[in-house]
Amino acid sequence: MTMTQVIDIFNSKGFTVQEMVALIGSHTIGFSHCKEFSNRIFNFSKTTEVDPAYNQGYASGLRDLCKNYKNDPTMSAFNDVMTPGLLATDSLMAVDNRTKPFVDLYAENQKKFFEDFGHAMRKVSVMNVKVGKAGEVRHRCDSFNELDVN
Ligand code: HEM
């Protein structure tokens, strides 16, 4: 997606650009499967094998890590080792004029990041909440309870 598309989606859910940047700041933790960024490290375009937005040393490490990902779909990389921007829209966010000021602000001021992240996350937590029989509190966050084997 372009940054405009991403901003529009967050806006349509009632989030400002600044709140969006704070929320996506959560990509400093966790990991991503190779298939989520493989297009950036293999066959990126007709002229370049690797997305030029990547630090090239980082990209070659990712190529090595993910070389077998089609046979082993569990292969993953940490979202933020030190070199941010594993995912394409994260890279964009650091250079787009609308988002860069907030990326820089939060990189400089961790206290502000934590405050704004907490505030935006509370907004997420009450979005489209299903009540009563309309929904369920999952035992596992990644599957419906009816599919539980336990
Ligand atoms: C433009 C918006 C976003 C995009 C395109 C995006 C994309 C992704 C992708 C592709 C992954 C890897 C998933 C996998 O391989 O299993 C991921 C992981 C993650 N995302 Fe996002 N995300 C976005 C916004 C957010 C927001 C708003 C939050 C939190 C409020 C968030 C929190 C996380 C976390 C914590 C992980 C790591 C999960 C883990 O380690 O299991 N992301 N994201």
From TrEMBL:
Heme b binds at residue 27. Its EC number is 1.11.1.7. The keyword DNA-binding does not apply. It catalyses: 2 a phenolic donor + H2O2 = 2 a phenolic radical donor + 2 H2O. Ca(2+) binds at residues 28, 72. Its cofactor is heme b; Ca(2+). PROSITE patterns: PEROXIDASE_1, PEROXIDASE_4. It comes from the Eukaryota. One of its GO terms (molecular function) is heme binding. This is peroxidase. It comes from Cicer arietinum (Chickpea).
